[in-house]
Amino acid sequence: MSPEGQLPAQAIIDAVGDVRSREVLISNAQLLALFATPISLVPAPGAGYALILEDAQVYHAAGTGATQDRVLKITYTDGSGTDLGAVTTGFLNQATAQHRLIKSYRATSTPSDINPTANAALVISAVTGEVTVADFTLKVRIRYRVVATAW
User: How many whole angstroms separate alpha carbon 97 and alpha carbon 33?
Assistant: First the structure.
């Protein structure tokens, strides 16, 4: 707070994009089709707004591990949108319960910036092919911000 009891201008700007969270359960059938059919984690926010990924937690219970382990990635729009974060191999192929934290990429290359895609959903997909054999569901808890694309 400033001496006059008012919030500084930067604090007011930051409050506009407060962190929100959402949980999504991905069924086994959806998991096995995650390459061809990415799953929406957060719907598109509407014209004039973009979503900013903060982080996501991904969990699966014990079960039969995938015989074709895949990288899982979070992108805008669909599996071909801008990459925002990923879980590498060694997650889906495990028979024991697994928990991972996906940190948002702060850059696709240097310097550290990403161009937010306006009015686009955040989705999760498998990279390079379908997940096979796994018999568990996937739980995703995602944290994100909604920001104005023009101001």
Answer: 21
pLDDT tens for the chain, residues 1 to 151: 444 555 454 444 444 578 999 999 999 999 999 999 999 999 999 999 999 999 999 999 988 888 888 899 999 998 888 889 999 888 999 999 999 999 987 655 545 678 899 999 999 999 989 988 889 999 999 999 999 998 7
Give the Cα-Cα-Cα angle 71, 94, 108 (nearest 5 degrees): 20
Taking a C-beta distance cutoff of 8 angstroms, is the pair 134, 66 a contact? yes
Amino acid at 92: L
Calpha distance 113→124 (Å, rounded): 21
Fold adopted by 19-148? Jelly Rolls (2.60.120)
Question: Is-contact 77 118, C-beta < 8 A?
Answer: no
DSSP H or E stretch at residue 28: helix 28-32
- Distance of alpha carbon 120 from alpha carbon 118, whole angstroms: 6
pTM: 0.84
